[in-house]
Design a protein that fits this description.
Distance between the termini: 49 Å
CATH class of the largest domain: Alpha Beta
Structural class: alpha+beta
CATH superfamily of the largest domain: Dipeptide-binding Protein, Domain 3
CATH architecture of the largest domain: Roll
Shape: globular
Mean pLDDT: 91
Helix content: 25-40%
Strand order of the largest sheet: 8-9-10-1-11-19-12
Number of domains: 3
CATH topology of the largest domain: Dipeptide-binding Protein, domain 3
Amino acid sequence: MKTKRRLILLVSVLMTLTIALSACSGDKEDSNASEITIGIPQDIEDTLDPHKILAAGTKEIFFNIYEGLVKPDSDGNLNPAVASDYKISADKKVYTFTLRDGVKFHDGSTVTVEDVKFSIDKCADTSNGEPLVAAFSNIENVAVVDEKTIEITLANPDSDFLSYMTTAIIPASNDKADSVAIGTGPYKYVSRSPQENIILARFDEYWGEKANIEKVTLQIIADSDMIVMNLRSGAIDMFCRVSAAQAAELSGTSYKVLEGTMNLVQAMYLNNAVAPFDDVRVRQALCYAVDRQEILDFMADGQGTIIGSSMYPAFGKYYMEELSTYYSKDIDKAKQLLADAGYADGFSFTLTVPSNYQQHIDTAQVIVEQLKDINVNAKIELVEWDTWLSEVYSGRNYEATVVGVDASQLTASALLKRFNSEAGNNFINFNSKAYDTAYANALAGITDEEQTSYYKECERILCEEAANVYIQDLACLVALSDRYAGYEFYPLYVQDFSKLYIVE
C-alpha cells in the first residue's frame, strides 16, 4: 500500500513539473510578452454566430469580440458603442440610433447602417419559428433614415428595449457567421482547438480604448481538480470562479483572489412536466427540506447571497429580498406536503449536473444529504457540458439539475421571460396561467412603476409555486497572478479581458 501511495505521489509531482516546464518553455518563452493565459471550464459552442449561442460560458467570451449599438459597463450603465448616440420617443415605441464614425469590423471593413439593419432583421426573423432575440418579436419596422441613422419602431411600448441593443452587429456580407467570427470588439477571434484552447488577439483598429494585452489564450480545463495545479505551476495566469477550497489552496502563492458575485440564479431546477415534480406540493416540500445557509457555509464559508426567486441583487429595484426567507427549513411541513401528494414514503430521482462546474457539484452533494431527511433519495449523474446543453437544456430530457442561469441583458425580462409557458428556452417546462398573465402585463406596462410591479408579481409566483428550489447568487472568486491587474466585476455574467494589464 505504501509503495502504491509513493507511486501516486511521484506521478503527481511529475505531472506538476511537466506543466511547469511547459509553461516556462512553451507559450511563455518571453516572460515580458504582452499575453495572458486564462483558464475556462468548458469549450465555446460549435457556432461562432453571436446570435445563435445559448451557453453563458460562450457569451462571456464573445463579449470581447462582438458589440451592439450600446454596451454595458461594470457599473451596469448602457453606453453608446457602435452607435454614438440614441433617442427614445416619449411613448417608448421609436428608438433612433446614430452610428459612430469610422467603426471597423475585424476584417477591416467599416460598419454601415446596412450592417446594423441586417443584424437586427436577422435576429427578428420569424420564418423558422421564434426570433433569435425574443424581444425582437415586438419590432414593427427597421428603417434606414440615412447613411448614419437607423430607426426601429416597436408595435408596443417597451422601456427596456434599449438593453436588447447590446445584440451583436455583424457584417451583412458575412454569410459564414457560424464559422467566421467578425465583430467590432476590442479583441478579434484567431483560432480554436476544440477542447483545448481559444486564441484571441487585440484589435488595434478598435474604435474605443484599446485592450492592454495583445494576446489572450483561453485554456480549457474541464477537470476541476486540475485548476489549482495549473495555477500553482504557472500554466495559467487567471481562473474565474474558483471554489473557496481552491482559493484557500492558493494562499501564500503569487496569486491574489478577488471577490465579487457571479450574477447567477443558482437553483435546483426541476422539470415541472415530469412526475413527481409536476405536483406543486412536491416542489414545495423540497424547498422546505433544503437548508440554503448550510449550502453556503459548506461551499464558500457562508459567502454568497440566498435568493428566493429568479432574480439576484444586482437588479436593484426588481430584487425581492423578502422571498429569500419564504421557505425556511421545516422537515415536518415537507413530510406533510409529500404525504398529501401521495409520497409519504418518499421517492427517488436523478440529479443531472455538469461535471465542469465544481460549485454546482458541491451544491448538489449537500442537497442529496439534506433530502434524505424527508426520505427522498437523489442520485447525482455527472455529465459533460455539451451533454448537459443537448439533453437537459435543449432536449429537456431530465428530472432535476443544479446549475446557474444568467441574464443576457440588464432587464428583469432577461431572467423572467424563460418561464412563460410558450418560451422556447423554458427548459423546466413551467406552466402557470397566472405567471403568463403577469408577464404579459409587465411587457405591456407603460410606466416603469407598472412594469416593476408586474415583474415582482412574476417573481412571487415562481417562489410560491416552487418552480425551482432557489438557492443563491454565488460568490465569485477570481484567481489572478500578481503579474496582472485591472480585473473588473460586472453585474452581468461576462468577462472583460480588455481591462487587464501587466503590472510593471
